[in-house]
Design brief:
Family: Belongs to the MobA family.
Distance between the termini: 27 Å
CATH superfamily of the largest domain: Spore Coat Polysaccharide Biosynthesis Protein SpsA, Chain A
GO molecular function, one term: GTP binding
EC number: 2.7.7.77
Low-confidence stretches: 1-6
Shape: globular
Number of domains: 3
Mean pLDDT: 86
GO biological process, one term: bis(molybdopterin guanine dinucleotide)molybdenum biosynthetic process
Strand content: 15-25%
Organism: Thiothrix lacustris
Structural class: alpha/beta
CATH topology of the largest domain: Spore Coat Polysaccharide Biosynthesis Protein SpsA, Chain A
Number of helices: 12
Strand order of the largest sheet: 5-4-1-6-8-7-9
C-alpha cells in the first residue's frame, strides 16, 4: 500500500560494511540469482520512495553505475551502521530516510507505508521494524531532524544502534507476516542457502501459516466484543472449532490468590500449566515490558481447536480484518489506512465504501457469519 509520503522519504541502502564474515567481500555486490544484491534492493525501493542514496565505503564507481548518489561515511575505519545513518541524514534532501541493509535483498511492498503510519499513529521519533520476536534495527524510518542527536552520540564514542534508539520514542512496527525481509547474507553458507530459494519466497512459521486468521478491528465502543460473541455462536453452529485471541491493555489476573497455581507463580515460576478433564490453562510471565505481537501469541495455539482464529485487538497487525464501525462513536473509519480490511460491518447502511470492500449489517450477525464462512471457502487451510 502506498501513501502520499513519496516526496518525504529517501531510501538508503547501507553497503558500507567490511563484510568480514564474507572474507572481506563487498556484500552489496554479491551476486544472488544472477544479480548483485544492490539491484534487488533498488527494484524493491523505487516504488516506495522519492529518492535513493547508496551508502558505500569502497567500490564507489561500481555503485555509481546505478545512477543514484553514492555517499561514504564521514567517520573513517568502518565505524558501523550508525556512521552510515549519519552520512545519509546529512546528504538526504527529504525530511525522512528509510534505512535498509544491503545484505537482505527483500523488502515488503508496503514497508514505507507501514513505518510511516506507525510513526504518525504513535507520534514517535522514529519507526523500526519488528519481526515478531525481536527488533530489526537496520530497517528503520528516521527523520533527518535527529541528525544532531546522532552526531552527538557518535562523538561520544558510542556505536550501538539500540543505545541511540533508547534515547528516543520508537514505534515498533510488526512485520511478522513478512519475515523474508530479515533473511540476510553474512556467510558463504547463507549465500548458498538463499541461492536455492526464490528471493521473494515467504519465510513463516508453518503452523502459523496454516491457520485461518481473521481480525475484528474497531474503535472502543463500536461493539466488536458483542459482535464477536454472536459470531462465535453462529460459527460454532456451522461446525467450526473456534479460537479467540484478545489483546489486553491492562494487568491480567486470571488466578485466585491462595490457590496452588497462584502460589507457584508467586514463588517465581515463569510458566504454570493447569490441566483437568475439562480445561487446560497456561499462565506465562512476560519477560519484557513491550506490548506483545500477534506472532508471540499464535505459537501457543492448539491447531486442533482452530478451524478459525478470531482476533480482537492487534488492529495494526497485517491480517485479514472486518472493521466494526458505528458513526455514533464519533471516530473515523480505519480502512483508509489499513489495506488488510476486507469488509466493514456497520449500522449505517448508507455508508459509501470502495467497491473492493463488502458492506455488512452490524445488526445481522448471522449474515456476517455467512460472509466469514464464504471467505473461509475461498481461503481454505492447507
Amino acid at each position: 500500500m502506498m501513501t502520499n509520503t513519496g516526496k518525504l522519504i529517501t531510501g538508503v541502502i547501507l553497503a558500507g560494511g567490511q563484510g568480514s564474515r564474507m572474507g572481506g567481500l563487498d556484500k552489496g555486490l554479491l551476486v544472488l540469482q544472477g544479480r548483485p544484491l544492490v539491484e534487488h534492493l533498488l527494484d524493491a525501493l523505487r516504488p516506495q520512495v522519492d529518492a535513493i542514496l547508496i551508502s558505500a565505503n569502497r567500490n564507489q564507481a561500481r555503485y555509481q553505475q546505478y545512477q543514484h548518489p553514492v555517499i561514504s561515511d564521514e567517520l573513517s575505519g568502518y565505524q558501523g551502521p550508525l556512521a552510515g545513518f549519519a552520512a545519509a541524514m546529512q546528504h538526504a534532501t527529504t525530511p525522512y530516510v528509510l534505512i535498509v541493509p544491503c545484505d537482505a535483498p527483500v523488502i515488503a511492498p508496503d514497508t514505507t507505508a507501514r513505518l510511516w503510519q506507525a510513526l504518525q499513529r504513535e507520534s514517535a521519533d522514529l519507526a523500526v521494524a519488528h519481526d515478531g520476536e525481536r527488533l530489526q534495527p537496520v530497517h528503520a524510518l528516521i527523520p533527518v531532524s535527529l541528525l544532531p542527536s546522532l552526531q552527538a552520540f557518535l562523538a561520544n564514542g558510542d556505536r550501538k544502534i539500540d543505545l541511540w534508539y533508547a534515547q528516543h520514542r520508537v514505534a515498533m512496527v510488526d512485520f511478522s507476516d513478512y519475515r523474508t525481509m530479515f533473511r540476510n547474507i553474512n556467510t558463504p553458507a547463507q549465500q548458498t542457502a538463499m541461492e536455492q530459494t526464490p528471493v521473494n519466497a515467504p519465510v513463516t512459521d508453518q503452523r502459523t501459516a496454516d491457520l485461518a486468521i481473521l481480525g475484528l478491528c474497531a474503535w472502543s465502543g463500536a461493539g466488536k466484543t458483542t459482535l464477536m460473541t454472536h459470531l462465535i455462536k453462529h460459527l460454532k453452529a456451522a461446525g467450526l472449532q473456534i479460537t479467540v485471541i484478545k489483546h489486553g491493555h491492562h494487568q491480567i489476573e486470571l488466578d485466585t490468590p491462595g490457590k496452588d497455581t497462584y502460589r507457584f507463580r508467586e514463588a517465581g515460576a515463569d510458566q504454570v500449566l493447569l490441566a483437568s478433564r475439562k480445561r487446560i490453562a497456561i499462565m506465562q510471565e512476560c519477560k519484557t515490558q513491550r506490548e506483545p505481537e500477534l506472532a508471540d501469541v499464535l505459537r501457543f495455539i492448539n491447531c486442533d481447536c482452530a478451524d478459525l482464529v478470531l482476533v480482537e485487538g492487534f488492529k495494526h497487525t497485517t491480517i485479514p480484518k472486518i472493521e466494526v464501525h458505528r458513526p455514533s462513536v464519533g471516530k473515523p473509519l480505519l480502512y483508509p489506512d489499513d489495506s488488510s480490511v476486507l469488509a466493514v460491518a456497520t449500522d449505517d447502511l448508507t455508508l459509501d465504501l470502495p467497491k473492493h470492500l463488502a458492506k455488512l449489517d452490524l445488526n445481522q450477525p448471522d449474515t456476517i457469519a455467512a460472509f466469514i464462512l464464504q471467505w473461509l471457502k475461498r481461503h481454505p487451510r492447507r
